[in-house]
Give the backbone structure.
Amino acid sequence: MDNTQKKSNFISSVLVLFFFLCFFLSDPALAEDSTFSLIDQVVVQNHNSHGRTLSKLFVFGDSYVDTGNNKIFTVESWKYPYGMTLPGIPTGRYSDGLVFTDFLASYMGMKSPMPYKQWTGLFKWRVRNGMNFAHGGTGVFNTWIKEPNMTTQINTFKKYIADGVYNKRDLARSMAIVALSGNDYTQYVLDGGTDEGFRAFIVKVLNQLEVNLREIGKIGLKKVVMLTLQPLGCLPNKAISLSYEKCDEPLNNETIFHNTLLQQIVQKLNSETTDTLFHVLDLYSAFLSVINKSAGETGSTKFGNPLLKPCCIPASAEVLCGSVDGNGVKQYTLCENPTGNIFWDPVHPTQSGWSAISSALKPSIDKLMLCNQLNIHTQRPSSASVATS
Ligand SMILES: *[C@@H]1O[C@H](CO)[C@@H](O)[C@H](O)[C@H]1NC(C)=O
Ligand SMILES: *[C@@H]1O[C@H](CO)[C@@H](O)[C@H](O)[C@H]1NC(C)=O
Ligand SMILES: *[C@@H]1O[C@H](CO)[C@@H](O)[C@H](O)[C@H]1NC(C)=O
């Protein structure tokens, strides 16, 4: 046997082992139960029957991933027209229907994890595919909204672990997804922060995010996935000054600065730990590719005109989509069909926007779902891969 042959034999035996592990670790207890809610029925469309090692998803962050943790009587996500497309009533999601978490869970072949605020503590099977700890409007620091920041969300997760809801074995098969979509930056502006000081504040936010990610890493999850910051300059609340036709490039530039620091942090965290793998999922590029595709003169223009105009537009800066005055009169305008818009309200995508953005991310998500050996080989020296396999 020559050297290359030896090598390829070694590789194929590694691959056999790899598939065996995938098969062995897949959890038959995850077969879906019959009590679906309407949303679950739509969401679990991608259920893949082949083995998977990641059987639980834990969610941290803000409205881009929150599926209903915020307090019912205080936030717009629990008011009409939120949820108008699916399921037809508000669910606490900041969209006309599904949000990113729902599509991600679907790609992972599972139901969207239950918002922890909606779990009574009974029936552990209801949270066997994970839990969602995200709260719309929050950041790494406290913001205008009286909801738990990321540190508090992580501490809540730790309490459930201390209570025995999840054990070590569960966590070793779990993935965390973390979204930080810019509420800290909105708060910075509300606090009268200057343009000159903005980069220094971005650094501050990312330093705190690093602390938080390291904390999640210590919990012992298999993977921790951080979303890059979406192009803030393309959000309708910014693009409104460009007739909803173009993105604000200087602000996108600041977003790129945030994302560059994020990449560095993730590399640093990966060099520190061996048990948890940190990944970045590039929401920024996914947003831009959807916007570019729709703006392109060639190809099918999927989303309407102007491209960055949201479906639901508040009547003034003092009200929100969903606000009504004392007489019950709507304080916003609503488009006829949200499927024609990328954006739902001044900062959030529609369900169909999320669908397009998520499918742009699907190849990366599929890679995350592969067994870990493959990733480790691309990220770590081989000695580390032996130690962690
Ligand atoms: C998160 O919230 C808690 C409770 O309000 C607060 O004590 C803590 O300082 C906050 N964390 C950060 C990093 O701002
Ligand atoms: C983008 O940021 C870089 C520094 O990171 C700066 O040199 C450049 O002028 C910025 N461009 C715009 C359009 O703001
Ligand atoms: C989108 O278009 C902009 C400007 O035309 C370009 O700079 C950017 O690279 C494109 N991004 C993607 C992800 O296609």
About this structure: The two ends are 27 Å apart (CA to CA). Strands lie at 56-60, 114-115, 130-132, 174-178, 223-227, 277-281, 312-314, 332-334. Confidence is low (pLDDT under 50) at residues 1-38, 41-51, 373-389.
